[in-house]
C-alpha cells in the first residue's frame, strides 16, 4: 500500500487515530474508540463526523474479523488528499489506514519516570482527543530514551501533572484516587474512562478529576499509568522519589482486564 504525497494527514497532521486491543478478531471497547474518533473528527471540522466514524469502524471490524486478529490495531483517519495550503478543501474525501500488530511481549509491572522538559500546550478545543500531531509526546519519549527512563512524566505550562508520554496518571491516597483534569490538554484514554466510571468505583475508590501538582503527586501512596496496550502499570519512582511495591496495582489490573473483556465486540 502507498499513501499519496498530497495526503493531508502526512503534510499537516490533519486527522486522528485510535490504538485498539483485539482478541480473536474482535475489537475491545469499539464503541468508546468510535465515539472518541467522532469527537476528534468533529473538532477538526470534518463533515458528518459521526457517519465517517461509523463507516470507518464498520470497515475496520470486518478487516479485523476476517483475519481473526489478536494483538493491537492502529486506525488512522486523515482528511485525504488536497492541494498545497492549510485550508481544508471542500472536496476532500477522508482516507483511513489500518495497521495490525501482534501481541506485544510482557510489560514490566513497574516503570521509572523522569520529568520531561517539554510541556503540554493548552488547547481546550482539542483537549482529550487523539489527533495525529503528537509532537510533545514524541519529544518526551526521546527524552526518556536519552536519559534511560522507562517513561517521562509530562506537565503543562502551569506545572500541573497531565500524563506520561504513554498514558494517563492515577494517584492514590488511601481510598481516594486523583487523576489529572484534562480539560485544557492531554489525551483522555479509553482505559482511563473505564477506570473512572466503572473499575475503581467497584473497588471502593473515590475518583476525582482535578488539577494535580507534582508536589501532591510525590505524596501519593502509589501512582498508576494506564493505556490501551499495557492496561495498568505502577510507577516505581519519579526521579529520586521511590514508591513502595504493593499488591494492589495487580488487583486493579485484573479488574480492568475483566472489564475490557466484557467490552470485546461492543
Task: Record keyword descriptors for this entry.
single chain; 266 residues; alpha+beta; D-amino Acid Aminotransferase, Chain A, domain 1; D-amino Acid Aminotransferase, Chain A, domain 2; 2 domains; 4-stranded antiparallel sheet
Can you walk me through this structure?
β5 (110-115), α4 (135-147) and β6 form a beta-alpha-beta unit. By secondary structure, the protein is an alpha+beta fold. α5 packs across α7. It is built from seven helices and 13 strands. It folds into two domains: 8-102, Aminotransferase class 4, branched-chain amino acid transferase, N-terminal domain (D-amino Acid Aminotransferase, Chain A, domain 1); 110-262, Alpha-Beta Barrel (D-amino Acid Aminotransferase, Chain A, domain 2). The chain is 31% helix and 28% strand. The model has no long low-confidence stretch (mean pLDDT 96). It starts with 7 loop residues before the first helix and ends with a helix. Strands 5, 6, 7, 8, 9, 10, 11, 12 and 13 form a nine-stranded mixed β-sheet that branches. A four-stranded antiparallel β-sheet has the order 2-1-3-4.
In short:
This protein is α+β, with helices and mostly antiparallel strands. It has helices at residues 8-12, 30-43, 49-67, 135-147, 190-202, 214-217, 248-262, and strands spanning 15-23, 26-27, 71-78, 95-102, 110-115, 151-155, 161-164, 168-173, 176-180, 206-210, 222-227, 231-238, 241-242.
